[in-house]
Amino acid sequence: MFRKKSKTLVGIDISSTAVKLIELGGSRGNMRVEGYAAVAVPPDSVVDKHVNNPEAVGESIKKALHMAGTRTKHACVAVGGASVITKLVPMPAGLSDNELEQQIRLEAEQYIPFPLEEVGLDFEVIGPSGEEPTSVDVLIAACRNETIESRVAAVEMAGLICSIVDIESNALENACHLIREQMTGGKENTIAFIDIGATTTTLNIMHAGNIVYTRDQSFGGKQLTEEIMRHYGLSYEDAGKAKRLGGLPDSYADEVLKPFIADAMQQVNRALQFFFASHSQVEKLDQIVLAGGCASIPGIDLALEEQMEVATRIADPFASMKIAARAKPKMLKLDAPALMTAVGLALRSFDNAPY
Q1: CA-angle at 175, arms to 173 and 181, nearest 5°
Q2: Cys-Cys link to 295, which of 121, 176, 219, 337 (CB 3.0-4.6 A)?
Q3: What is the mean pLDDT of residues 91-96?
């Protein structure tokens, strides 16, 4: 899953409601968005981060490629959620990659609750172990083969080569390097990175630039879309467009939007309480960064900042990038908070980058 890139890649984030595609160009210090698109996937084609219908998802990716105008043939996708297991383990220093692989496979059964023949297994040396001077910390990652293969199949049905299958949390860490200037304080700060998507709210706690805690909850913007649909008698598709682009009656703010934001605040507060209960050594957050489609809802960042009494801002991975005309700059700006994972995957195109 951690294979190094060999060619320019498009980053493709496959979620329960859409595929989001990003192509980056330029150089590490002077990046440019070459193409971008977001296309809905048919209902139930992706459930709980598993691609149930690769053909349907492949068609959505094909449409996204056409809309983005990209000719790149290599892609990077990600797996996440309960299908992925990661573990940081100490290993003897000085072993070659082949020796490390043999050692990891010998010991993997104690870390992975699935038969080894049913999982894709990979590893990466992180650096010297802080606990054992003669050891290095090695990140072991495993994912059920069927989860990997269904994503690869969808990409290949769109006519692409799936060069890398990464992990969503890794992609997010990569993308966070792009928003360092948007984060307050020093390198040792503790930041809550909250992604409120269509069906899932994910809390990632970042300390010193690394994700140290992740929790998913079943809550997202789909509930707001359904409430708009019921309240104003719209189809689901029209309700989604109205939510995103505007045009709803004046009563929308008080009757529909405010109750949804209140529910979102409860979900976020609950997730944070779980974190603090299991990490008593952390006394406070230094900042909250919002991402996901719901981060674009007007006022949601201010509501969270007021409730949690923590500085809150919305993630924008494109703030310091140039944007090609075919990447539709206005729409890209609107969708920016929802594109963090796709951007993190697209960053795998760059050699010698610190992500």
Answers
A1: 100
A2: 337
A3: 89
